[in-house]
Write a structure and sequence with these properties.
This protein is α+β, with helices and mostly antiparallel strands. It has helices at residues 10-23, 42-45, 57-62, 91-102, 140-146, 179-184, 203-233, and strands at 31-37, 67-69, 75-78, 82-85, 110-115, 119-124, 129-132, 154-163, 170-174, 194-199.
Length: 234
């Protein structure tokens, strides 16, 4: 069982997942959930529930969520604004575009767009990636292959499968450098799973990167001193 340590905490995990999702670019066949709020999204905060007072059951039903498909032509049909091309945009970029479109209908709209596909997030050596689950039987090894495989910067012997609530997840350690570990890799992944591939940490390279500005400064000073000395000798 994997436990978060001081170098990689539960907060780091949540932040990495959030960053990976934000960097995801919208693709064909994606399902998106859309929320549009007026007045800069004041109803989202509404700490005293003043804006919800008087809402009837019918009002509550009208707030149910819908998902919208990005069609093969790259367009998604959305209420009020019709077909919109957001193919290839990040979620943030799409939100900005939709806010501009909805501003023709509402005062100071605040758009929240979420990616609703069944997906797995891969973190660690392969960078933050969102991998859609194209069928019910997608395995761990297939997801790793789709994310770029195990390269020279990745530790095949320490792959973690993180499942469940991030506040108290189940974490499984898998060693892909062994036959038994490879057998484990056929495990079927579930939507929301996180795969973390440990990167090799090259301490000497990181240390050299840290001291390189100081070395450059020392080299510059020595070079200047040698030039001055050479001029004086002449």
């Amino acid at each position: 069982m994997f436990k978060m340590d001081e170098e990689f905490t539960e907060s780091d995990l949540k932040q990495a997942v959030s960053l990976a999702e934000k960097n995801y670019q919208i693709k064909k066949d994606d399902y998106l959930r859309l929320d549009v709020f007026t007045n800069g999204g004041e109803r989202i905060v509404d700490p005293n529930f003043e804006l919800r007072q008087g809402m009837t059951n019918q009002n509550m039903q009208n707030t149910r969520q819908f998902v919208y498909l990005v069609r093969q032509d790259g367009l998604v049909k959305l209420p009020m604004v019709g077909d919109v091309d957001i193919l290839g945009m990040t979620i943030y970029e799409a939100e900005q575009k939709l806010q501009a479109l909805y501003s023709e209908h509402y005062i100071d709209p605040y758009v929240v767009l979420r990616y609703e596909n069944r997906r797995v997030i891969v973190l660690g050596a392969n960078g933050g990636q969102v991998i859609p689950l194209v069928n019910e039987n997608t395995s761990l090894i297939e997801v790793i292959a789709l994310s770029g495989g195990i390269n020279q910067g990745a530790k095949s012997q320490t792959v973690r499968l993180i499942r469940g609530n991030l506040n108290n997840p189940e974490v499984y350690m898998i060693d892909l450098s062994t036959v038994s570990g490879m057998r484990s890799s056929i495990v079927r992944l579930e939507p929301g799973d996180i795969v973390y591939i440990d990167p090799w940490r090259r301490v000497w390279i990181e240390s050299l990167r840290d001291v390189s500005p100081i070395l450059s400064l020392i080299t510059g000073v020595i070079t200047l001193a040698l030039v001055v000395k050479s001029i004086n000798l002449n």
